[in-house]
Amino acid sequence: ANLSMGAGAAKQPTAPLLDRLTGREPIPSDDRFWQELLASAVSLPAGSSVEDVTAISRAYCAELVRNNPRSGNFGALAAAMAERLGRATRSAATDTEMQQACGAVFLLRIFLKHMLETLEPEDVALQLRGRDVAAAAQAPGSASAAAEPVQARPPGGSEDTEAAVARLIVEALLGAAASCRLDDVSYALHMEVLAALTVCLSAQLFSELSASVPLPTVTAALGAPPPLAEALVARLLKLYIDQPPRPANPEGRLLGSIGSMLWLPLQVIASFFRAQEPPVELADRSLQVLLLLTQHLPPALFPDPMLSNHFLAALRCVGDADSACGSGAEAEEGRARQGAGFSVRRLHDALCARLPEEATLVLLYLLLHGNRELLDHALSRSDPDALLLPLLRTLAGMLSPACRLRTSRVYMLLIILLMLSQDGGFVSTAHAVMLPTVPWFKERLLHDISVGSLLVVVLVRTTQYNLSRLQDLYVQTNCLAALANMAPCFKRIHPYAARSLVTLYDVLARRFQKLEARRAHASPVELADSEELSDEALGSAADFLRMALEVLNVALAAQAGLQQNEHLVYAILERQRVFAPLRGHELFWDLIENVFRVIDHFGAGLSGQGPASTKESPLQLDKDSDRRTPPLPTTARSSSGSDGVWSVDLVLAHIGEASRSWKADSLEHVPDPRFTYEQESAPEEFFTPYIWSLVRDRSGLVWDPLRVVLLAEELDDEPADALPALLQGVDVVEDVDEHATAPGPPA
Q1: To which H or E segment does residue 450 belong?
Q2: From residue 575, how far is each of 449, 495, 502, 619 by CA, in Å?
Q3: Would you say 59 and 280 are in contact if contact means Cβ atoms under 8 Å apart?
Q4: How open is the CA angle 306-311-316, to the nearest 5 degrees?
Q5: Which of 28, 221, 380, 436 lies at a 20 to 30 A Cα distance from 295?
Q6: Beta carbons within 10 angstroms of residue 203's beta carbon
Q7: What digits encode the pLDDT tens for the residues 471-487?
Q8: Following DSSP, what letter does each residue of 697-716 receive, concatenated?
Q9: Computed over its alpha carbons, how large is the radius of gyration of the chain?
Q10: Nearest to 137 by CA among 174, 94, 111
Q11: How far apart are the C-alpha atoms of 283 and 246, rounded to whole Å?
Q12: What's the longest Cα–Cα distance across the chain?
């Protein structure tokens, strides 16, 4: 039977069944009632509005909450759902079994979501207590019957009743998601199972992450045993890679079940608020559940530091069939659960194809940070532009005044770029890949620029934007750290990228000088009361300026030689005046002195004032190109014979000729600063709220914003100066042994 909303629709015995389910009388899990309930159709009166149907849905949910502590029917529904999911996961499952399992999952999801959203965590735990559920969890045919116990167990090996119900629900859902076949018939069941898992984990939304409150469904999910975790991670990644298409009317087979009565208002309401968004696909929901399951274990729920998240461990071990983690029998079992057809190359291609979606961005981070095989594959490819261009386009686009900046997204982009910049081979390959044009870059026309040079341009642009708008220490640190990692590999750097680096130094130098001057003229009271004039502020400004100078120094002393970076020398000669004010400063003299040695050597013969002259000659920019003509002092004479005018080609030729006699050891040795990404000690404080914000916005599920606690202070809605917790622990240590670290994600 199908859902009918016409006036002449035949009446079905639906209301009495729902009345009994939500009533005070217990219903045994083996009662024929469950067969009748899940096989019934729904008839709604003609003219029913969304508000009418929603009111009916909420009324039944409220009635169940009122009576369930006595009846225990929610636990019985959980047992009935687990039994039907067990049938649906068989290879010979019928359409009817799929349909009934789908309806059971949906009914349980609606009731559980209402409980989590309207009750305190302690009251939800009371609702989960049912009759004989622990025995039902191991009943034959249950999808969780073969699952191993979860990690978190009370002493003595026994479980509280609410923990048993939660484990029954969660492991049945996890097992079905991992093993149920996928076709047009089962597509809706997969969507429902993943939605139900999302709801189980959504208990996190309604309390602080550090709160010591009972969240049995979250504990059961994140504490799932390794075999189940490995199988499910492989399945969810496969769904993400394959992007299975939505069949025609995928929910049509669900509408014959009682769950359709509650499905209708949810979908209509969701579509009303998200009319401009594409529908949620199975691949989307698979990725969302994967990210939620691979979060770091909240210490409030898992106080034992020796416990680990098996989903995250499984994600870190996925790879081609012949390179699974471990060795011997353990590796063989892991490969079997992962599946023989898994391909790191296809995973990499899927990631590149779906960037810059934020959920994909988080998955890419997790894989680059923890999965060595995916990291090695990404760094060894000859097409770094496939990965970098979506990231750079997104980062550049977020700096537009018209874009609503999401600070957490900027953090993720910069962390990924920092991790990629740690590999010199990857950076060198990026400098070898040329782009004829970059149409999405709006600052100016860029022609014949390498991907590596484009990365420099975007990082410098982000640094300048941060200085003027965000003033976020974490953004500043990671941009400069990535540039420092790249500096030894600069090769044939684009003229605009070279000038950007010199401009970045100029901006940071002027800010430092201004701050130093203000402090010199400030009274003791002003120094004590102003954060802008504090020792910490001056120290940060000095650190950032020195990092910018180190980028230039390392590039000038690089093995590639100045013969292949003539545009960088040109940019320094062009703006040589900006280096003079701090030439004798005690904090920067050594680095600036190296710059002037380059100026002295390559400037000889270009100026009538002599090779040591610091007089700057302004260059005229051709608006249609990056080629400039530098007019020199009238006392100088160019080799072309025209008084005082050097063409850009002659200047570059002069630099090329002078580079033959240039020796890099002419510079004072500067330790090569290398920065590596290290995750903070409590990554869940950043990642768990961030992932939930993505799921909330794109899952198709709607939570009452007035009840949500975890996202009460979202990062994207706060000004940068309102994020003191995010900036704690931001520290960059430079080490002559090249083991320096850049900060992990803000905690």
Answers
A1: strand 447-450
A2: 22, 13, 7, 9
A3: no
A4: 90
A5: 380
A6: 25
A7: 899 999 999 999 999 99
A8: HHSS----TTT--TTTT-GG
A9: 31
A10: 174
A11: 10
A12: 105
Alpha-carbon span 458 to 466, nearest angstrom: 12
Q: Tokens at residue 356, please?
A: 């810059």
d(CA 604, CA 591): 20
Quick one: three-class SS letters along 575-633?
A: CHHHHCCCCCCCCCHHHHHHHHHHHHHHHCCCCCCCCCCCCCCCCEECCCCCCEECECC
List, for residues 594-623, the tens digit of each pLDDT value: 999 999 999 887 764 433 334 444 343 333
Tell me the β-bridge partners of 620: 629
Q: Residues 516, 538: contact at Cβ < 8 Å?
A: yes
User: Could you give phi then psi for residue 645, rounded to 5 degrees?
Assistant: -125, 125
Residue 211 and residue 162: Cα distance in Å, rounded?
A: 19
Whole-number Cα distances in Å, 97 to 144, 172, 186, 345: 17, 15, 10, 37
> Does the structure show a pLDDT above 50 at 375?
yes
**Helix (H, G, I), strand (E, B), or coil: what is residue 460?**
helix
Q: What amino acid occupies position 670? A: V
Alpha helices in 145-259 (DSSP H): 161-179, 187-201, 216-222, 226-242
C-alpha to C-alpha distances, 483 to 323, 342, 382, 623, nearest whole angstrom: 33, 35, 21, 27
Spatial distance between the Cα atoms of 333 and 313, rounded to a whole number of angstroms: 15
Report how far Cα 390 is from the mean position of its chain's Cα atoms: 14
Sign of CA dihedral 116, 119, 121, 125: negative
DSSP 248: S
Q: Which conformational region is residue 158 in: left (phi greater than 0), alpha (psi within -120 to 50 degrees), or beta?
A: beta
Distance CA 559, CA 682 (A): 39
CA distances from 503 to 12, 506, 581 (A): 75, 5, 15
**C-beta of residue 550 within 8 angstroms of C-beta of residue 732:** no
For residues 276 and 669, the answer to whether their CB atoms sit within 8 Å is no
Q: Report whether pLDDT(260) > 60.
A: no
d(C-alpha 423, C-alpha 379), whole Å: 7
What pTM, to 2 d.p., does this model score?
0.84
Q: How much is the mean pLDDT over the chain? A: 79
Distance CA 106, CA 3 (A): 15
Judge contact between 123 and 96, C-beta under 8 A. Answer: no
Lowest mean pLDDT: which of 234-238, 248-252, 618-622?
618-622
Residue 370 identity (one-letter amino acid):
G
Tell me whether the omega of the peptide bond preceding residue 356 falls within 30 degrees of 0, making it cis: yes
Structure tokens, 599:
């100026």
Looking at residue 246, the DSSP 8-state letter turns out to be P
Residue type at 465 in one-letter notation: Y
